[in-house]
Specification:
Blueprint: E1 9-12, H1 21-29, E2 34-35, E3 47-48, E4 55-57, H2 58-68, H3 80-84, E5 95-97, H4 118-129, H5 132-152, E6 176-177, E7 180-181, H6 183-187, H7 192-211, H8 215-235, E8 237-238, E9 243-244, E10 246-247, E11 253-254, H9 263-267, H10 272-282, E12 315-316, H11 317-329, H12 333-354, E13 360-361, H13 381-395, E14 398-401, E15 406-409, E16 417-424, E17 427-433, E18 444-449, E19 453-459, E20 462-468, E21 471-476
Parallel strand pairs: 15-19
Antiparallel strand pairs: 1-16, 2-3, 4-5, 6-7, 8-9, 10-11, 12-13, 14-15, 16-17, 17-18, 18-21, 19-20
Helix pairs in contact: 1-13, 2-4, 2-13, 4-5, 4-7, 5-7, 7-8, 11-12, 11-13, 12-13
Length: 477
Protein backbone atom coordinates (compact mmCIF):
# COMPACT_ATOMS: atom_id res chain seq x y z
CA UNK A 1 0.00 0.00 0.00
CA UNK A 2 1.43 3.45 -0.90
CA UNK A 3 2.53 5.74 1.89
CA UNK A 4 0.34 8.65 3.06
CA UNK A 5 1.17 12.15 1.93
CA UNK A 6 1.09 15.17 4.25
CA UNK A 7 0.80 12.95 7.34
CA UNK A 8 3.59 11.10 9.19
CA UNK A 9 4.65 7.81 7.62
CA UNK A 10 4.12 4.87 9.98
CA UNK A 11 5.54 1.35 9.65
CA UNK A 12 5.53 -1.73 11.87
CA UNK A 13 7.74 -4.73 11.20
CA UNK A 14 6.00 -8.06 10.62
CA UNK A 15 2.27 -8.74 10.14
CA UNK A 16 1.30 -6.10 12.72
CA UNK A 17 1.80 -3.54 9.95
CA UNK A 18 -1.72 -4.38 8.75
CA UNK A 19 -2.99 -2.36 11.73
CA UNK A 20 -1.87 0.71 9.81
CA UNK A 21 -3.77 -0.05 6.60
CA UNK A 22 -6.78 2.01 7.81
CA UNK A 23 -4.43 4.88 8.68
CA UNK A 24 -2.91 4.95 5.19
CA UNK A 25 -6.32 4.69 3.58
CA UNK A 26 -7.64 7.51 5.76
CA UNK A 27 -4.71 9.82 5.00
CA UNK A 28 -5.42 9.61 1.28
CA UNK A 29 -9.19 9.78 1.52
CA UNK A 30 -9.18 12.79 3.84
CA UNK A 31 -8.38 15.14 0.96
CA UNK A 32 -11.75 14.34 -0.57
CA UNK A 33 -13.40 15.00 2.80
CA UNK A 34 -12.27 18.62 2.88
CA UNK A 35 -14.39 21.30 1.21
CA UNK A 36 -12.54 24.53 0.39
CA UNK A 37 -14.08 27.99 0.07
CA UNK A 38 -15.18 28.59 -3.49
CA UNK A 39 -18.08 27.81 -5.79
CA UNK A 40 -19.32 25.00 -3.55
CA UNK A 41 -18.75 26.73 -0.23
CA UNK A 42 -19.21 30.26 1.10
CA UNK A 43 -17.32 29.40 4.30
CA UNK A 44 -14.28 31.45 5.25
CA UNK A 45 -11.99 28.45 5.74
CA UNK A 46 -11.69 24.77 4.70
CA UNK A 47 -14.11 22.47 6.51
CA UNK A 48 -14.82 18.77 6.87
CA UNK A 49 -17.72 17.53 4.81
CA UNK A 50 -20.76 16.64 6.92
CA UNK A 51 -23.30 13.85 6.58
CA UNK A 52 -25.71 16.21 4.87
CA UNK A 53 -24.41 17.52 1.58
CA UNK A 54 -25.28 21.16 2.25
CA UNK A 55 -23.89 21.44 5.80
CA UNK A 56 -20.81 20.95 7.96
CA UNK A 57 -21.09 20.02 11.64
CA UNK A 58 -19.29 21.31 14.72
CA UNK A 59 -19.01 17.86 16.33
CA UNK A 60 -17.25 16.54 13.23
CA UNK A 61 -15.00 19.60 13.12
CA UNK A 62 -13.85 19.21 16.72
CA UNK A 63 -13.05 15.50 16.53
CA UNK A 64 -11.59 15.80 13.04
CA UNK A 65 -9.17 18.48 14.21
CA UNK A 66 -7.64 15.96 16.63
CA UNK A 67 -6.63 13.87 13.61
CA UNK A 68 -5.99 16.61 11.07
CA UNK A 69 -3.55 18.41 13.38
CA UNK A 70 -0.99 15.71 12.56
CA UNK A 71 -0.94 16.85 8.92
CA UNK A 72 2.21 18.65 7.82
CA UNK A 73 0.62 20.96 5.26
CA UNK A 74 -2.86 22.01 4.28
CA UNK A 75 -5.80 21.96 6.67
CA UNK A 76 -4.86 21.17 10.25
CA UNK A 77 -8.09 22.34 11.79
CA UNK A 78 -11.68 21.93 10.66
CA UNK A 79 -12.84 24.27 13.42
CA UNK A 80 -11.71 27.44 11.61
CA UNK A 81 -14.97 28.19 9.77
CA UNK A 82 -16.89 27.83 13.03
CA UNK A 83 -14.58 30.18 14.91
CA UNK A 84 -15.02 32.66 12.05
CA UNK A 85 -18.79 32.34 12.35
CA UNK A 86 -19.16 33.15 16.05
CA UNK A 87 -22.77 34.23 16.42
CA UNK A 88 -23.54 37.86 17.31
CA UNK A 89 -25.12 36.55 20.52
CA UNK A 90 -21.77 35.11 21.52
CA UNK A 91 -21.97 31.38 20.84
CA UNK A 92 -20.45 28.95 18.36
CA UNK A 93 -22.99 27.47 15.92
CA UNK A 94 -23.72 23.74 15.83
CA UNK A 95 -23.49 23.59 12.05
CA UNK A 96 -22.89 25.82 9.06
CA UNK A 97 -24.58 26.01 5.69
CA UNK A 98 -22.16 25.71 2.78
CA UNK A 99 -24.20 27.88 0.41
CA UNK A 100 -24.47 30.88 2.73
CA UNK A 101 -21.57 30.27 5.12
CA UNK A 102 -23.94 31.06 7.98
CA UNK A 103 -25.69 29.40 10.89
CA UNK A 104 -28.98 27.96 9.58
CA UNK A 105 -32.07 28.77 11.66
CA UNK A 106 -33.42 25.94 13.79
CA UNK A 107 -36.68 25.45 15.63
CA UNK A 108 -35.15 26.11 19.05
CA UNK A 109 -32.15 28.05 20.32
CA UNK A 110 -30.31 25.09 21.93
CA UNK A 111 -30.33 23.26 18.59
CA UNK A 112 -28.20 26.05 17.12
CA UNK A 113 -25.51 25.85 19.81
CA UNK A 114 -22.58 23.48 19.28
CA UNK A 115 -21.47 20.95 21.88
CA UNK A 116 -18.58 22.71 23.70
CA UNK A 117 -15.67 20.83 22.14
CA UNK A 118 -13.70 23.51 20.32
CA UNK A 119 -11.58 24.50 23.32
CA UNK A 120 -10.43 20.88 23.50
CA UNK A 121 -9.59 20.89 19.78
CA UNK A 122 -7.68 24.17 19.98
CA UNK A 123 -5.78 23.11 23.11
CA UNK A 124 -4.68 19.84 21.49
CA UNK A 125 -3.73 21.71 18.32
CA UNK A 126 -1.60 24.06 20.41
CA UNK A 127 -0.01 21.18 22.33
CA UNK A 128 1.30 19.74 19.06
CA UNK A 129 2.31 22.88 17.17
CA UNK A 130 2.82 25.50 19.88
CA UNK A 131 1.24 28.36 17.91
CA UNK A 132 0.59 30.89 20.68
CA UNK A 133 -0.77 33.57 18.32
CA UNK A 134 -3.52 31.22 17.16
CA UNK A 135 -4.27 30.19 20.74
CA UNK A 136 -4.72 33.82 21.82
CA UNK A 137 -7.11 34.49 18.95
CA UNK A 138 -9.11 31.30 19.54
CA UNK A 139 -9.28 31.86 23.30
CA UNK A 140 -11.09 35.20 22.96
CA UNK A 141 -13.78 33.61 20.79
CA UNK A 142 -14.09 30.51 22.93
CA UNK A 143 -14.34 32.56 26.13
CA UNK A 144 -17.22 34.55 24.62
CA UNK A 145 -18.94 31.26 23.82
CA UNK A 146 -18.38 30.09 27.41
CA UNK A 147 -19.92 33.28 28.85
CA UNK A 148 -22.98 32.77 26.64
CA UNK A 149 -23.42 29.22 27.94
CA UNK A 150 -22.89 30.22 31.56
CA UNK A 151 -25.50 32.98 31.27
CA UNK A 152 -28.18 31.15 29.27
CA UNK A 153 -27.86 27.38 29.09
CA UNK A 154 -27.63 26.27 32.71
CA UNK A 155 -30.80 24.70 34.11
CA UNK A 156 -32.32 25.54 37.48
CA UNK A 157 -30.38 22.70 39.08
CA UNK A 158 -27.15 24.10 37.61
CA UNK A 159 -26.77 21.16 35.19
CA UNK A 160 -27.04 21.16 31.42
CA UNK A 161 -28.78 19.53 28.49
CA UNK A 162 -28.73 20.22 24.79
CA UNK A 163 -30.23 19.02 21.53
CA UNK A 164 -29.90 15.69 19.80
CA UNK A 165 -27.85 16.61 16.74
CA UNK A 166 -24.97 18.64 18.20
CA UNK A 167 -24.43 16.09 20.99
CA UNK A 168 -24.83 12.98 18.78
CA UNK A 169 -27.54 11.65 21.07
CA UNK A 170 -28.57 8.95 18.57
CA UNK A 171 -25.29 7.10 19.04
CA UNK A 172 -26.14 6.28 22.66
CA UNK A 173 -29.83 5.52 22.16
CA UNK A 174 -31.05 7.78 24.98
CA UNK A 175 -34.48 9.48 25.02
CA UNK A 176 -35.50 7.49 21.96
CA UNK A 177 -38.77 5.80 21.00
CA UNK A 178 -39.41 4.22 17.61
CA UNK A 179 -35.94 5.11 16.40
CA UNK A 180 -36.28 8.83 17.08
CA UNK A 181 -35.29 11.11 19.93
CA UNK A 182 -38.42 12.32 21.72
CA UNK A 183 -37.99 16.08 22.32
CA UNK A 184 -40.28 16.08 25.35
CA UNK A 185 -38.11 13.44 27.06
CA UNK A 186 -34.78 14.98 26.16
CA UNK A 187 -35.74 18.63 26.63
CA UNK A 188 -36.56 18.45 30.32
CA UNK A 189 -33.65 16.17 31.23
CA UNK A 190 -30.15 16.97 32.48
CA UNK A 191 -27.48 15.11 30.48
CA UNK A 192 -24.28 13.70 31.89
CA UNK A 193 -22.42 14.16 28.58
CA UNK A 194 -23.52 17.80 28.27
CA UNK A 195 -22.32 18.42 31.83
CA UNK A 196 -19.05 16.59 31.21
CA UNK A 197 -18.32 18.50 28.01
CA UNK A 198 -19.14 21.76 29.75
CA UNK A 199 -16.75 20.95 32.59
CA UNK A 200 -14.01 19.88 30.16
CA UNK A 201 -14.55 23.10 28.25
CA UNK A 202 -14.19 25.17 31.45
CA UNK A 203 -11.09 23.26 32.56
CA UNK A 204 -9.31 23.57 29.21
CA UNK A 205 -10.21 27.25 28.88
CA UNK A 206 -8.83 27.76 32.39
CA UNK A 207 -5.54 26.16 31.33
CA UNK A 208 -5.44 28.43 28.29
CA UNK A 209 -6.18 31.49 30.42
CA UNK A 210 -3.43 30.62 32.91
CA UNK A 211 -0.90 30.14 30.11
CA UNK A 212 -1.91 33.43 28.48
CA UNK A 213 -1.63 35.34 31.78
CA UNK A 214 -5.35 35.96 32.30
CA UNK A 215 -5.35 35.10 36.00
CA UNK A 216 -8.79 36.48 36.87
CA UNK A 217 -10.50 34.61 34.05
CA UNK A 218 -8.56 31.46 34.93
CA UNK A 219 -9.97 31.67 38.46
CA UNK A 220 -13.52 32.19 37.20
CA UNK A 221 -13.23 29.22 34.85
CA UNK A 222 -11.87 26.99 37.60
CA UNK A 223 -14.79 27.99 39.83
CA UNK A 224 -17.28 27.14 37.06
CA UNK A 225 -15.67 23.74 36.54
CA UNK A 226 -15.75 22.97 40.27
CA UNK A 227 -19.37 24.11 40.53
CA UNK A 228 -20.56 21.83 37.73
CA UNK A 229 -18.48 18.94 39.11
CA UNK A 230 -20.01 19.31 42.59
CA UNK A 231 -23.54 19.31 41.20
CA UNK A 232 -22.91 16.31 38.95
CA UNK A 233 -21.35 14.30 41.78
CA UNK A 234 -24.18 15.18 44.15
CA UNK A 235 -27.07 14.49 41.78
CA UNK A 236 -26.06 12.17 38.92
CA UNK A 237 -23.92 9.44 40.54
CA UNK A 238 -25.43 6.06 41.43
CA UNK A 239 -23.68 4.33 44.33
CA UNK A 240 -25.53 1.12 43.51
CA UNK A 241 -24.44 0.96 39.87
CA UNK A 242 -21.15 2.91 40.06
CA UNK A 243 -22.21 4.99 37.08
CA UNK A 244 -23.37 8.51 36.22
CA UNK A 245 -26.91 8.79 34.89
CA UNK A 246 -28.98 11.47 33.19
CA UNK A 247 -31.75 13.05 35.27
CA UNK A 248 -35.35 13.39 34.16
CA UNK A 249 -37.33 16.60 34.64
CA UNK A 250 -38.12 15.56 38.22
CA UNK A 251 -34.46 14.98 39.10
CA UNK A 252 -34.71 11.17 39.07
CA UNK A 253 -32.05 8.95 37.49
CA UNK A 254 -32.65 7.61 33.98
CA UNK A 255 -30.72 4.33 34.43
CA UNK A 256 -29.30 3.59 30.98
CA UNK A 257 -25.57 2.89 31.01
CA UNK A 258 -23.86 4.45 27.99
CA UNK A 259 -20.42 5.73 27.05
CA UNK A 260 -21.79 9.27 27.41
CA UNK A 261 -20.94 9.03 31.13
CA UNK A 262 -17.20 8.79 30.37
CA UNK A 263 -17.13 12.52 29.72
CA UNK A 264 -17.23 12.77 33.52
CA UNK A 265 -13.89 10.93 33.68
CA UNK A 266 -12.14 12.76 30.84
CA UNK A 267 -13.28 16.15 32.14
CA UNK A 268 -12.05 15.51 35.68
CA UNK A 269 -15.52 15.63 37.25
CA UNK A 270 -15.30 12.09 38.61
CA UNK A 271 -13.13 11.54 41.71
CA UNK A 272 -10.47 8.86 41.32
CA UNK A 273 -12.43 6.18 43.19
CA UNK A 274 -15.45 6.68 40.94
CA UNK A 275 -13.31 6.83 37.81
CA UNK A 276 -11.69 3.52 38.68
CA UNK A 277 -15.08 1.90 39.28
CA UNK A 278 -16.33 3.18 35.92
CA UNK A 279 -13.26 2.07 33.99
CA UNK A 280 -13.61 -1.40 35.50
CA UNK A 281 -17.06 -1.54 33.89
CA UNK A 282 -15.67 -0.10 30.67
CA UNK A 283 -13.17 -2.97 30.34
CA UNK A 284 -15.71 -5.66 31.32
CA UNK A 285 -16.81 -7.81 28.32
CA UNK A 286 -20.31 -8.10 29.82
CA UNK A 287 -20.56 -4.30 29.77
CA UNK A 288 -18.79 -2.10 27.16
CA UNK A 289 -15.70 -4.13 26.20
CA UNK A 290 -17.06 -6.08 23.25
CA UNK A 291 -15.38 -7.95 20.38
CA UNK A 292 -15.11 -4.53 18.74
CA UNK A 293 -14.57 -2.09 21.61
CA UNK A 294 -16.39 -0.14 22.78
CA UNK A 295 -20.17 -0.43 22.60
CA UNK A 296 -21.82 2.93 23.15
CA UNK A 297 -24.59 1.14 25.12
CA UNK A 298 -23.75 -1.40 27.82
CA UNK A 299 -24.40 -5.04 26.90
CA UNK A 300 -26.07 -5.41 30.32
CA UNK A 301 -29.00 -3.32 29.12
CA UNK A 302 -32.14 -5.37 28.48
CA UNK A 303 -32.60 -4.14 24.90
CA UNK A 304 -28.91 -4.35 23.92
CA UNK A 305 -30.11 -6.32 20.89
CA UNK A 306 -33.41 -5.35 19.33
CA UNK A 307 -35.94 -7.72 17.81
CA UNK A 308 -34.38 -7.40 14.37
CA UNK A 309 -30.94 -8.25 15.82
CA UNK A 310 -29.55 -4.73 15.39
CA UNK A 311 -27.51 -3.49 18.35
CA UNK A 312 -28.87 -0.66 20.48
CA UNK A 313 -25.32 0.64 20.74
CA UNK A 314 -22.50 0.72 18.20
CA UNK A 315 -18.72 0.70 18.24
CA UNK A 316 -18.00 4.19 16.98
CA UNK A 317 -14.63 5.85 16.45
CA UNK A 318 -15.38 9.24 17.98
CA UNK A 319 -16.92 7.74 21.13
CA UNK A 320 -13.93 5.39 21.37
CA UNK A 321 -11.71 8.47 21.52
CA UNK A 322 -13.65 9.57 24.61
CA UNK A 323 -13.11 6.14 26.21
CA UNK A 324 -9.38 6.07 25.37
CA UNK A 325 -8.81 9.58 26.67
CA UNK A 326 -10.66 8.67 29.86
CA UNK A 327 -8.24 5.75 30.29
CA UNK A 328 -5.22 7.98 29.62
CA UNK A 329 -6.56 10.53 32.11
CA UNK A 330 -6.56 7.83 34.78
CA UNK A 331 -3.03 6.69 33.88
CA UNK A 332 -4.11 3.48 32.19
CA UNK A 333 -2.53 3.88 28.74
CA UNK A 334 -1.94 0.14 28.24
CA UNK A 335 -5.69 -0.54 28.47
CA UNK A 336 -6.39 2.26 25.98
CA UNK A 337 -3.74 1.03 23.55
CA UNK A 338 -4.82 -2.60 23.78
CA UNK A 339 -8.39 -1.55 23.01
CA UNK A 340 -7.20 0.65 20.14
CA UNK A 341 -5.24 -2.26 18.65
CA UNK A 342 -8.38 -4.40 18.74
CA UNK A 343 -10.41 -1.59 17.19
CA UNK A 344 -7.92 -1.04 14.34
CA UNK A 345 -7.72 -4.76 13.68
CA UNK A 346 -11.48 -4.82 13.21
CA UNK A 347 -11.46 -1.69 11.06
CA UNK A 348 -8.66 -3.22 8.97
CA UNK A 349 -10.71 -6.36 8.37
CA UNK A 350 -13.79 -4.39 7.31
CA UNK A 351 -11.57 -2.23 5.06
CA UNK A 352 -10.08 -5.34 3.46
CA UNK A 353 -13.53 -6.84 2.88
CA UNK A 354 -15.30 -3.70 1.63
CA UNK A 355 -12.60 -1.20 0.64
CA UNK A 356 -14.16 1.37 2.95
CA UNK A 357 -13.96 2.69 6.51
CA UNK A 358 -17.15 3.10 8.49
CA UNK A 359 -17.69 5.36 11.47
CA UNK A 360 -19.99 2.88 13.25
CA UNK A 361 -19.64 -0.90 13.42
CA UNK A 362 -21.52 -3.70 15.13
CA UNK A 363 -19.78 -4.27 18.49
CA UNK A 364 -19.92 -8.06 18.08
CA UNK A 365 -19.53 -8.64 14.35
CA UNK A 366 -17.21 -7.41 11.59
CA UNK A 367 -19.93 -5.48 9.82
CA UNK A 368 -20.97 -1.82 9.70
CA UNK A 369 -23.88 -0.81 11.91
CA UNK A 370 -26.59 1.67 10.92
CA UNK A 371 -27.34 4.75 12.99
CA UNK A 372 -30.58 6.68 12.87
CA UNK A 373 -28.78 9.97 12.27
CA UNK A 374 -27.13 8.55 9.15
CA UNK A 375 -23.60 9.08 10.44
CA UNK A 376 -22.44 5.50 9.94
CA UNK A 377 -21.98 5.83 6.19
CA UNK A 378 -19.02 4.43 4.29
CA UNK A 379 -15.82 6.46 4.07
CA UNK A 380 -17.14 9.08 6.46
CA UNK A 381 -14.61 11.96 6.60
CA UNK A 382 -14.98 11.93 10.38
CA UNK A 383 -14.15 8.21 10.45
CA UNK A 384 -10.94 8.92 8.52
CA UNK A 385 -9.88 11.79 10.76
CA UNK A 386 -10.59 9.82 13.94
CA UNK A 387 -8.62 6.89 12.50
CA UNK A 388 -5.56 9.15 12.15
CA UNK A 389 -5.89 10.24 15.78
CA UNK A 390 -6.37 6.62 16.92
CA UNK A 391 -3.24 5.43 15.11
CA UNK A 392 -0.89 8.24 16.14
CA UNK A 393 -2.27 9.50 19.42
CA UNK A 394 -3.28 6.16 20.93
CA UNK A 395 -1.67 3.12 19.26
CA UNK A 396 1.70 4.81 18.71
CA UNK A 397 1.42 6.51 22.09
CA UNK A 398 2.34 10.05 21.02
CA UNK A 399 1.18 12.60 23.59
CA UNK A 400 2.40 16.11 22.69
CA UNK A 401 2.99 18.95 25.18
CA UNK A 402 4.54 21.66 23.01
CA UNK A 403 3.69 24.37 25.56
CA UNK A 404 6.45 22.93 27.70
CA UNK A 405 8.57 21.66 24.81
CA UNK A 406 7.91 18.02 25.64
CA UNK A 407 6.79 15.08 23.53
CA UNK A 408 5.65 12.03 25.47
CA UNK A 409 6.11 8.57 23.96
CA UNK A 410 4.31 5.58 25.45
CA UNK A 411 5.61 2.54 23.51
CA UNK A 412 3.04 -0.21 23.09
CA UNK A 413 3.82 -2.04 19.83
CA UNK A 414 6.36 -4.75 20.64
CA UNK A 415 7.76 -5.03 17.11
CA UNK A 416 10.19 -2.52 15.70
CA UNK A 417 8.29 0.46 14.29
CA UNK A 418 9.04 3.84 12.75
CA UNK A 419 7.41 7.25 12.72
CA UNK A 420 8.74 9.53 9.98
CA UNK A 421 7.85 13.16 9.31
CA UNK A 422 6.21 13.92 12.65
CA UNK A 423 5.66 17.68 12.96
CA UNK A 424 6.12 18.97 16.48
CA UNK A 425 6.66 22.51 17.82
CA UNK A 426 7.66 24.06 14.47
CA UNK A 427 10.04 21.19 13.69
CA UNK A 428 10.14 17.65 12.33
CA UNK A 429 11.02 14.40 14.11
CA UNK A 430 11.83 10.94 12.73
CA UNK A 431 12.12 8.02 15.12
CA UNK A 432 12.60 4.28 15.09
CA UNK A 433 11.60 2.28 18.17
CA UNK A 434 13.37 -1.06 18.48
CA UNK A 435 11.63 -4.34 19.18
CA UNK A 436 11.03 -5.58 22.71
CA UNK A 437 13.86 -7.79 23.90
CA UNK A 438 12.39 -10.96 25.37
CA UNK A 439 15.27 -11.02 27.83
CA UNK A 440 14.06 -7.81 29.39
CA UNK A 441 16.76 -5.53 28.00
CA UNK A 442 16.02 -1.90 27.24
CA UNK A 443 14.59 -0.87 23.88
CA UNK A 444 16.59 1.32 21.52
CA UNK A 445 15.09 4.51 20.12
CA UNK A 446 16.92 6.11 17.21
CA UNK A 447 15.79 9.66 16.64
CA UNK A 448 16.52 12.60 14.35
CA UNK A 449 15.15 16.09 15.02
CA UNK A 450 15.66 19.62 13.73
CA UNK A 451 14.36 21.41 16.84
CA UNK A 452 15.36 21.13 20.50
CA UNK A 453 12.78 19.31 22.62
CA UNK A 454 12.35 16.98 25.55
CA UNK A 455 11.33 13.37 24.90
CA UNK A 456 9.59 11.70 27.84
CA UNK A 457 9.42 7.93 27.43
CA UNK A 458 6.84 6.38 29.73
CA UNK A 459 6.52 2.73 30.71
CA UNK A 460 3.84 2.05 33.30
CA UNK A 461 4.45 4.29 36.30
CA UNK A 462 8.05 4.95 35.27
CA UNK A 463 9.20 7.66 32.91
CA UNK A 464 12.50 9.11 31.78
CA UNK A 465 13.04 12.56 30.30
CA UNK A 466 15.65 13.06 27.55
CA UNK A 467 16.73 16.63 26.75
CA UNK A 468 17.58 16.60 23.04
CA UNK A 469 19.22 19.11 20.69
CA UNK A 470 18.87 19.10 16.87
CA UNK A 471 20.67 16.12 15.34
CA UNK A 472 20.84 12.32 15.57
CA UNK A 473 20.32 10.50 18.86
CA UNK A 474 20.33 6.88 20.05
CA UNK A 475 18.52 6.31 23.33
CA UNK A 476 18.12 3.30 25.58
CA UNK A 477 14.66 3.25 27.16
Amino acid sequence: MPEPRDFPVLKIDDEQDSLLDPYRHACYQLRQGIVDPGDESALKAPALRGNEQAFVDAWDAAFATLGLRWAGIGTRSATDPFLSALDDSGYLPARLELASGGNPPEASEPARVAAPLFALAEWELFKLHGNRERLEHAYELLHADFVYREDRLRKRNGLLGGSAGPYRLHATGRFMLGGRVVPSLAGGASWIDACGMYALNARVLGEMAALLGRKEQAGELEWAMRDVAARVNALMWSEEDNWYYDLDEHGEHLPVKTLASLWAVWSGIAPRSRSEAMLKRLCDPTQFERAHPFSTVSASEGDYRKRDGAPAGVARGDFNVVAWEALFAQHRPAAAQKSCESHLRRVSKVLKDSGEIYLACDPDRDIPAPLHDGSSGSNSPLAHAVCVQSSLGVLMGLRPHAHRGELELIPYIEQKHTIEGLRFAFGTINMEVGAVDKGGARRTVELMCDVPFKLRVRNGDKSHLHDLQPGMHTLQV
